[in-house]
Fold peptidylprolyl isomerase.
Amino acid sequence: MAMLIASLAVSAVSRDSLNDPGLAARVNGEPIPLAGLTVLHSIAVHSDRHTPLNKVLASVIDNRLLGEYALRHYDDATLFPGTGVAFSRAAAVEDQLVATLRRAYKTQLDLALDKAGGLDTLVKRRHVPAQAMLEQVFPPKRGLRLNSELSTAQMAAARQIVLLSYRLPGGEAGQISLADIWLKQNIQGKTQLVGGDAGYRDQQAMQLLASRYVLDWAKHASGLAPADLALLQRAIEDRDRRGALLQLLGLAADMHYSSEHLNRLIATVTPAEIRDYYYRHQQEFRRIERVRASHIHCKEEAVCQRAYAALGKGVPFGEAARRFSDAANAADGGTLGWLLPRDGAAPWLHELAFVLPPGKPSRLIREPNGSGWQIVLVEAREEGMQAPESEAVRYIASQAIGKKKALAEFKALREKLYRDADIAINPTALGFGQSALNIQEQP
């Protein structure tokens, strides 16, 4: 699982100790079974084989406290606003649980499925739905909006459309309906179902059967108790809610999401705070004022290649320009002189000169219109400071200050949750002699 180790240190000390060999900890009275925790540890070591068990427990506790806080203060519609076009929360959690079990028990699952004769042998009957029944769910010419869902009547009709019947090795018999696979889809999958893609429908039914097989195997053959499986699911839910909370607070990097909370903090930033930030972080506000550059332009790539080869052999840039360039300034060594920024309206060659490092010719660059090839040399550049009252400074400083305030709020919240929490640790089960945990989890 992701985000098991990061870098915001908080000290969590158990209020008392446990000696139950089956428990790793209790958090606010709820047990953390050792066997379930060991499954999470086995996955963590795939990414870092040196990950100790106590760090996995630290992550579980951290996600638990923050996930519970998120659950108490926000509903799922607020935490997971994208479920209209993404997967439903129940489907997403179940899929992650199945993926967790597959990763932890891949070899055993593959062997057990081979022994059972493969997934197809679990299918007792495949059903071909009548077109009239499908049209009760997906009326002809019915479009699907991005936030569209089936009505109550349509879902009832979808539940009556059985796609396959099966029996699992554990003895459980069941059926997979159109409603079952509909609930497992994101907007792209739903669109394919609405469009009547029978191949996709059948493939999704088999995929759902494979997931049910994994869950059945975990229940009957993995050796995990119900409490262990419950921990795995709870760990996923807690981690997801924690991540959603960080996004709400503006502490998760997501270019497609705008945090209202962070925007409110940014709006409170004062001119005095911006000035103070400006003078404390002047390196962030340096800008290139102008550059001196030269270029070689060739209509034919082969000619430009010869020019580049000559430069590689030590021919001075100006001489190579006079020999190979067909630009109007070739006789002057290809000089472009000092170039100034044009506020986004500069020709592409000028824009390129402002991002190239000085002192080294560029590689061959094809012109955007395809009319030729360029080699550009930035000979020098002069830097200056953005004006402290500029819009760019205000924006950059306000963003940084707002995020700093959001992080400070998060740290204070987190510390309070730990102070108020009743955390009991079993140091013997974790393989160390004290109950102090180094929680290292970064927002």
User: Anything to note?
Assistant: The first strand starts at residue 9 and ends at 13. Residues 1-15 have pLDDT under 50 and may be disordered. Residues 260-281+390-417 form one domain.
